[in-house]
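Dear colleagues,

As part of the handover before I leave the project, I'm documenting each prediction I ran so the next person doesn't have to rerun anything. This entry is a single chain, and its sequence is reproduced below.
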Amino acid sequence: MKTLKTAVVGAGIYGVNHIEVYLQNPHVTLAAVCDLNEETRRKISEKYKVKTYADLQEMLDAESPDAVSIATPDNFHLEPALACIEREIPILVEKPLATTAEDCRKIIQAAKKHNTRVAVDFHKRWDPAAIRIYNLLRQSKGYPIRGYMNMDDIIDVPTKWFKWTNTSSPVDFLGSHCVDLIRWYMGCEATEVYAVGTKKLLASQGIDTYDNIQSIITFENGATWTVENSWVLPSGFAKNNDGRTSILTSEFLIRADSQDRGLQIFDSQKQSTPNVYFFNEFNGKIFGFGADPINSFIDCIINKKDFVACAIDGLEAAKITEAIHLSVETKTPVKIEREI
């Protein structure tokens, strides 16, 4: 089977996952990593023995990669995406594809012009529970009536993990996963959003973004979904995040708990409930639904298969999250128009 030369742009908390998955994929040679931070580059070079670059164009000129992962902060996806697309290099962009629908359209237009493939890492589509729900809904002869989904983070995420929290929100960071997963479940597009939000706790710490946003989303099939996203859970919560789903259909009720995956660990400080299905390691191999979409990206390029989540999925998710933000600001329902 063909071997691809890959590169990773953005070596932060999640970019490291792309680096490690590429290093163990037998069909990949990791050529280089690009990151603006000098200390990050030094650590990556020392730990993974890979070339690093501060300048993206320099890396692309020197290495000519066959595929690139883009794992920069949410609001910095557009520029590296376009730089790779213009060279006809397939890309895997961490969710969201971009934080505005207009930037998503720019990526799609460039990809069409240069005949370049774009995948989005909506890794929740590989979650075993999500796959079971998706298959159940597809096999059902009934119809969905309503749904509920929450995805929340502990307050350490916006206050300690990132320096770019002011440019994001719990909807961009977490809700993008939710709306993509719901679109996938429903098999149709959203038509209207109404949302409310709160800016208080983070604002008191000098961070100008929402603590919490709650949305009601209506879909073409008539189903309505309530979605809740926050990133101010107490630091002592049992896991870095919390998530639950409930779906009522004409045939059955589905409930899924993404927070407690069955393993509980207690020490002298607190209880932990690690997600053993996301990223895990055994016998020198990283596996789980965090690694699966990265490996799938490579497999789809080599075997010329459709991506599980493509740029259009990124655009449709961005249209929903953008509508959510507009609804919060205007305090009115917002219609979502179909693409021409």
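The domain at 4-122+289-308 is CATH 3.40.50.720 (Rossmann fold). Residues 311-330 form the longest helix (20 residues).

All the best with the project,
I.
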